[in-house]
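Archive entry. Fields below.
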Amino acid sequence: MKHMTHTIKHHLTDALLMAYSAGSLPEAFNLTVAAHLSMCDECRARAGAFDTVGGALMEETTEAEMSKGSMAAALARAKATPAEPRVQPARDGVLPAPIQAYVGGDLDAVTWRPVGMGVKQAILPTERGATARLLYIPAGAAVPDHGHRGTELTLVLQGAFTDATDHFGAGDIEVANEELDHTPVADIGADCICLAATDAPLRFRGLMPRLAQPFLRI
Amino acid sequence: MRIRDRKDEAAFAELFDHFAPRIKAFLMRSGGDATIAEECAQDVMATLWQKAHLFDPSRASAATWIFTIARNRRIDALRKARRPEPEDILWGPDQEPDQADVLALQEETDQLAGAIANLPEKQKALIEAAYFGDLSHSEIAEKTGLPLGTIKSRIRLALERLRHAMN
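PREDICTED_STRUCTURE:
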């Protein structure tokens, strides 16, 4: 994934970055934030600033005494397991590395399910409480009009979409709260692929999508 | 740095004495009992030894980096959830961050720590509540009142240098 810092217009909020740094976001949101940070050095630097706050708070916390021999035990543990090669380098393809880790590869490894009107989705396996899904919106098509109870994060991975608020291109992230009813429409030029995370079920306006909702897990 | 470059056990012991009791306290305040917190603090220090080669002192101080390892361990231990991380961007084997950048980052880290220590009690309590896991993202105030601009710009610059070195 090539980082594209200079073209990104829509960034994460401070509250989300602080919660990401503190470790209190649900897994689906963590994934979406990690994917955006992979594409956006501006937000990566802001996240680093929030990590610095965490470091400072830990630094000045009261100390809890460690048991005798704990240092030797930790060192033995460190040497017993081989040095961690778990680096997550940038990968070629449309999906940033953190998403590829959930999919098991790039776009060709995604198992899409149709949700109607040409739109397809793939739900990624995360802990309960929030849902992460990849959305495939054909060029020029619209996602059914929907509102939210909680927060919805939508990160554009390929193509672009427009809704009532603005235009969102690759790397842009939209943070929508319950006041926003929106109908994202993909640009004509290319099919749009997004990662969307929600912490409450979406509410569709039309009757049909609402009836279908329990079956589609939208 | 001595651990990163030379696998220096004396340096590890120094870091352990300083950080392990703080990691343990941090984990206990975040809802872990003393036994789990002790176990996890040892794990965090073991991870530090193993991952020392990934540490970039132009983007994070040791305290900041150790905090991120402890936070990830906490999510793993208390929630048993994965904690997705962004793609790694690392210095190549023959490259190093500039020493001046490392010093500047450390200075600004210290200044931020000073600013946090001097926050009004009520505001500081809110930030602590966020970091010790007592607030959800929707409960965290959008205006944190933290002076983060300078350190953010410093990290941003380090990222630019790193990107440039990679190309």
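CURATOR_NOTE: Chain A touches chain B through 73 residues (CB under 8 Å).
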